[in-house]
Amino acid sequence: MPTGFRFAHLSDPHLPLPSGWPAGLRALAGKRSLGLLSWRRKRQAIHRPEILAALMADVAAHAPDHVAVTGDLTNIALPDEFEQARSWLAQAGPPNRVTVVPGNHDATVAVLWESGLGRWQPWMSGDAPAEGFPFVRVRGPVAFVGVSTAVPSPPLLAIGSVGARQAARLEAILAELDRRGLFRVVLMHHPPLRIGRSERKALTDRRRVQDVLARAGAELVLHGHHHRDHIASLPGPGNPIPLFGVASASAAPSGRADPARWIQFTVERRGDGAWRLSAQVRGYDAGGFRTEARYAMVCGHHDVAARP
């Protein structure tokens, strides 16, 4: 029998544009038109629904206690896309078993809450009513803290921002969850550090978030956005904080980005009171998913290297 609390992390599913969606010229003005062009020229060949379906079947076969999705369910933030994504979330699991935070594609342009992100509210709200971002969901020994980095940005940019108000709330929340002795998992779309040299896709206030994490701490930070596997750490008040990014959940092997992957994490409390975190990376290969690497950490230290 599996022990510990197990949860899956996946990101950037980029669901196909709905068939027959009624988008006129006005709806496709500005940044949406560029996104549509990108989808038709290259992205629809990369993000394949059959690969996403295979990934979700693999997740279901592993029967995690919870599923965390770190954004970019849509492509150009059309109302029909948000409704389609709501249906996909319902298939992924009930709101108490699935948590989602938004990504930059989900904020391609500003969309009314009721016709946009508000349709995901059952999967994107905390245990406390009207909590907003960051929200907190406690499941077993784990506290999932959902942070929004999704803000509309000018054409050709895919930046994100947390903002001063959300960052202040995040620090207070992390400190309270630490007092409660919970394993704190921060969910966000953009990573709180720069990956690569370009600022075009970066979190603009990542240093503010780094400062919050350095003061308040967390046991794990999960992100998506770059469509590549990524493992790093950030300074915490004591031990380093592990940070995992994951490739797009729907990506076909293309040579430009990593093929589809998801990660299953297991959290256990050791006899000495410390946390043990293990990770199993499942990747797409030759029509199916297989375990590509394993990691194990104790109290934030990388004690066991990747094993194929």
Count of individual beta strands: 13
The CATH architecture can be given as 4-Layer Sandwich
Note the total helix count. 5
Distance between the termini: 23 Å
Approximate strand percentage: 25-35%
Average pLDDT over all residues:
90
* Low-confidence spans: 300-308
User: How many structural domains?
Assistant: 1
Helix and strand content put the structural class at alpha/beta
Shape: globular
> What is the ordering of alpha helices and beta strands?
EHHEHEEEHEHEEEEEEE
Strands across the major sheet, in which order?
3-2-1-10-11-12-13
Give the oligomer, counting copies of the same chain as homo and different chains as hetero.
single chain
Name the helicity range: 10-25%
How would you sum up the major sheet? 7 strands, mixed
State the fourth-level CATH superfamily: Metallo-dependent phosphatases
CA-atom Rg in angstroms: 18 Å
| CATH level 1 class label | Alpha Beta
CATH topology: Purple Acid Phosphatase, chain A, domain 2
Give the topology, please:
Layout (H helix, E strand, L loop, with lengths): L4 E6 L20 H16 L2 H14 L3 E4 L9 H14 L5 E3 L34 E5 L2 E5 L17 H16 L3 E5 L18 H11 L3 E4 L6 E5 L6 E5 L15 E9 L5 E11 L2 E11 L2 E4 L4
Parallel strand pairs: 1-2, 2-3, 5-6, 6-7, 7-9
Antiparallel strand pairs: 1-10, 4-5, 8-9, 10-11, 11-12, 12-13
